[in-house]
Design goal:
Blueprint lengths: L2 H13 L4 H13 L1 H22 L6 H10 L1
C-alpha cells in the first residue's frame, strides 16, 4: 500500500469502516512508514477532538445569535 492509498483510506480507517483486509494493509503500512504514522496519529487526534467538541456545542452569545437571525 502506498502513502497516497493510506491517506485516501485514513478517514475510513479512523471511523472503523474498512474491512479486516483493508485495515490490516493500512496497519502494515503505518508500521513501516514513520511519516504516515505521525500524520495519521495527528489526524486521528484532531478528528477525535472535533467529535468531542461537537457532541456538546456551546450556545452562541445572544448578540451573535441576534446578528445571525437578522442576516438569515
Amino acid at each position: 500500500m502506498t502513502c497516497n492509498e493510506v491517506l485516501e483510506a485514513l478517514s475510513d480507517f479512523i471511523d472503523g469502516e474498512l474491512d479486516a483486509s483493508q485495515r490490516e494493509r493500512v496497519v502494515d503500512h503505518l508500521r513501516g512508514c514513520n511519516w504516515c504514522e505521525t500524520f495519521g496519529g495527528r489526524f486521528a487526534a484532531i478528528v477525535k477532538a472535533l467529535r468531542r467538541e461537537l457532541q456538546d456545542p456551546q450556545p452562541l452569545p445572544p448578540e451573535v445569535l441576534a446578528r445571525l437571525r437578522k442576516k438569515l
